[in-house]
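Trying the structure run again after the queue cleared.
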Amino acid sequence: MDFHRIGDKLVSKKRLENIIEEILELRSGGMSQTEVASRLGIDRTFVCRLESLAEVKKAARLAVVGFPIKNKQELQDMLAEEGVEMVFLLTEAERWDFVKHKSGLEIFNFIMELIARAHTFEQIIVLGSNKRIKIIEAVLDKPVVGYELGPSPLQEDVYVEPESLRQLVRAIKKV
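Done. Tokens:
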């Protein structure tokens, strides 16, 4: 749904997305926050807050989690080359195999250990469906960098472009 009723207001999600996209294009094109605000007729503080909300912090310690991944081995090799300390990737078959051959308690304990380990990292990239990214962010109670593979539910392995992921990793990691 494009429209959301908020009290007496009817807000267009698409219009908001377009405004945000325009702000980002103008800022990345070299305009100052003041120039962008003036051009779009908005407060400079809004531009500043928007950037702060969406800022991806550089991180020395980075984890990558994702499923279902078609080119798992290729990504694992590339992430190892880039010095990513924690990599947890699954294919669709591995995901189903895991849940079929583990007890509920084993699955619960594994997930709790994975969450605890993930909390030790400054930044986490999550490769997954739109809903899985939101769930992982809520469970970890910290911002994650979502690399959306498609809408939920994903039921087939998805090919992830290694160079695109490499560039994201490099942009996040401290050099």
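The mean pLDDT is 91. Worth checking whether this holds up in the mutant runs.
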